[in-house]
Design goal:
CATH architecture: 2-Layer Sandwich
Distance between the termini: 61 Å
Structural class: alpha+beta
Largest sheet: 5 strands, mixed
Shape: globular
Radius of gyration: 18 Å
CATH superfamily: GHMP Kinase, N-terminal domain
Order of helices and strands: EEEEHEHEEHEEH
Helix content: 25-40%
Number of domains: 1
């Protein structure tokens, strides 16, 4: 039986190509830091509050500040209305985003404090967790918090037998009758090029996995340029 091969993307992109990106910082003037990141029809907004004294006191850390992340999708971000409030998926994404950002944010100069990062998805077409991480990293930098380096995030994977970068919703869940899709969100540090987060949903061979991760690293370099350009053009003193 012949294996299915995905040969043409519905939006005309190359298999290695990220959807059109836009990024801005300073979108919420009352926040300590804020940013938006869009890729295709997916949009993420991140707001940073803090550092501020952490309450209750027994949660404080005398050696460092604490980073907290809250991720959520707005009720009308997708065609089927989402029930407001936290759920298992949003809690999981909040936690893995926190892990990724903690790898580069240095809060040792702010003991007994908390920095809160709020991520909201007003419009979703797959790739929301990586868009949220891209926005959050920019918002933290915009807030002027010490960061060892930036992080950039992208979803890569496989559709039937074809390796692809930046799956949209159609590719991620609705297209194929063959082997289905594999989705791999990755987060890459800007300077040392280390993987700060990697998740895998689906099946992929070791050789394919290595190849698609390299594709993701190239895509992250392109995303980093967009992030840095936004920070350059929209700093706090602007």
């Amino acid at each position: 039986m012949a294996k299915n091969i995905y040969t043409k993307r519905d939006d005309g992109r190359k298999m290695t190509e990220v959807r059109p990106m836009t990024a801005k910082v300073g979108i919420v003037p009352s926040a300590d830091g804020s940013a938006s990141f869009e890729t295709g029809k997916t949009k993420a907004i991140a707001v940073v509050r803090g550092p501020r004294t952490l309450h209750p006191q027994h949660m404080q850390n005398a050696k460092t500040g604490i980073l907290r992340v809250n991720y959520g999708m707005m009720p009308f971000s997708v065609e089927d209305r989402i029930r407001p409030g936290p759920n298992r998926r949003s809690e999981e994404i909040s936690k893995v985003t926190e892990w990724a950002l903690n790898s580069v944010v240095d809060l040792t100069g702010f003991p007994n404090t908390v920095v809160d990062v709020f991520i909201q998805i007003p419009q979703a077409d797959a790739g929301t967790r990586v868009a949220g991480i891209n926005a959050a990293a920019m918002a933290l930098a915009h807030a002027g918090l010490p960061m060892k380096q930036m992080v950039s995030a992208i979803g890569v994977g496989k559709i039937d037998q074809t390796l692809v970068v930046d799956l949209d919703k159609f590719e991620d869940s609705e297209f194929h009758d063959g082997e289905g899709s594999t989705d791999i969100p990755i987060v890459l540090t800007s300077r040392t090029k280390e993987i700060a987060l990697l998740q895998l949903d689906g099946k992929i061979s070791v050789d394919e996995f290595k190849e698609v991760i390299e594709m993701g690293k190239v895509a992250c370099d392109d995303i980093l340029k967009v992030q840095m350009e936004a920070l350059k053009n929209g700093g706090k003193d602007e």
